[in-house]
């Protein structure tokens, strides 16, 4: 692409990090979110966004525009990077929809099956030439450390991506090829099941409830919470996840548990130190459960239920998560039933994810 403009939607750590990173790389960035005058005022007052960690800025980085006007931000954009939590996907889709047009490409980071929400609305309303894709995981792990400061814990590297439907994945990769290194996943389900958060977040939070409730904002999972017992539980989750991947004819990318063993090898692997330092979760209601139980874990368990795959540890974690927070993440989560995809054979499900059509449909 010759046009170097991009709209980044969000005002949290990922959006701020992405906006600063893309600006540093020479792109014209519009940073947009709803009613975020205070956050944007902090950035303006500071002269821009300051990055810390693996990418440090000597001076603050200011996007070319910050606005809560979605018509201005989306109406003329060809590339939109959506960086919000899963509970905001529908809200952001509603705000973008009036100005969405054929030819645009949306990439959601992290994906968490948000592409289903966007595509469902676009297709129902006749906007069928918009590409919607989502990342496996996030652009980079990061945290807000000040009013206009963000810690980037790992470099922005190659990321797996899948469009919904997957027949448009290459279009998404090409649309962003001058900004990011994207590599195709088979489809959004293969990508979602390969999210490292599925393996570690729910188990890591539930097995650290006492420390989290006592330490609050000072708790850091990768410093305070990793233990051999937790990794045995995470290993069981990963094995159940891998069995689901196998049954659906998907690939397993990397081992999260292996990376966690490196994380626990304190005094070595200095490249992981910023990641180890990331604070969170500060409570049992944070996204480590609210997002990951209702998205990746709910998807895994629903696939297991649909196709008769045994996943007892994942089901137990879902039950405990529901109990401690008094909310049924499975009932209200991104399951096959709730996404309108239950009742299909495995082959038809994959065909639907890749083309939005099924044999005989």
Automatic annotation (TrEMBL):
Chain ranges of the Ketopantoate reductase N-terminal domain: 6-101
Top-rank lineage group of the source organism: Bacteria
Alphabetical list of InterPro entries matching this protein: 6-PGluconate_DH-like_C_sf, 6PGD_dom2, KPR_N, NAD(P)-bd_dom_sf, Opine_DH
Occurrences of domain Opine dehydrogenase (ranges): 185-324
Signal peptide: none
Any Pfam family hit: ApbA
Protein name: NAD/NADP octopine/nopaline dehydrogenase family protein
Upper taxonomic lineage: Bacteria, Bacillati, Bacillota, Clostridia, Lachnospirales
């Amino acid at each position: 692409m010759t046009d170097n403009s991009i709209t980044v939607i969000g005002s949290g750590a990922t959006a701020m990090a992405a906006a600063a990173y893309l600006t540093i790389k020479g792109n014209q960035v519009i940073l947009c979110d709803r009613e975020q005058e205070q956050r944007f005022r902090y950035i303006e007052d500071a002269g821009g966004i300051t990055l810390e960690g693996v990418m440090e800025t000597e001076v603050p980085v200011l996007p070319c525009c910050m606005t809560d006007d979605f018509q201005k931000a989306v109406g003329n954009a060809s590339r939109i990077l959506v960086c919000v939590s899963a509970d905001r996907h529908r809200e952001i889709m509603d705000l973008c929809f009036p100005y969405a047009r054929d030819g645009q490409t949306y990439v959601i980071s992290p994906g968490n099956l948000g592409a289903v929400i966007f595509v469902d609305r676009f297709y129902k309303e006749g906007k069928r030439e918009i590409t919607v894709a989502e990342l496996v995981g996030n652009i980079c792990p990061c945290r807000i450390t000040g009013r206009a400061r963000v810690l980037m814990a790992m470099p922005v590297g190659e990321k797996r991506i899948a469009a919904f439907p997957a027949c448009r994945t290459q279009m998404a990769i090409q649309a962003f090829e001058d900004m990011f290194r994207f590599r195709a996943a088979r489809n959004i389900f293969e990508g979602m099941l390969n999210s490292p958060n599925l393996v570690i977040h729910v188990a890591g939070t539930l097995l650290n409830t006492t420390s989290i409730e006592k330490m609050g904002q000072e708790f850091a999972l990768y410093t305070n919470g990793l233990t051999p017992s937790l990794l045995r539980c995470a290993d069981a989750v990963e094995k159940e996840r891998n069995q689901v991947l196998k049954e659906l004819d998907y690939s397993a990318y990397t081992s999260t548990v292996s990376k966690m063993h490196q994380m626990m090898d304190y005094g070595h692997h200095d490249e992981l130190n910023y990641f180890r330092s990331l604070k969170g979760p500060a409570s049992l209601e944070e996204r480590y459960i609210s997002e990951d139980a209702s998205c990746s874990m709910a998807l895994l368990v629903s696939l297991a239920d649909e196709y008769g795959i045994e996943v007892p540890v994942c089901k137990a974690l879902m039950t405990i998560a529901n109990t401690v927070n008094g909310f049924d993440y499975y009932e209200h989560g991104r399951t096959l039933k709730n996404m309108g995809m239950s009742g299909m054979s495995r082959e038809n499900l994959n065909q639907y994810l890749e083309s939005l059509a099924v044999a005989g449909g």
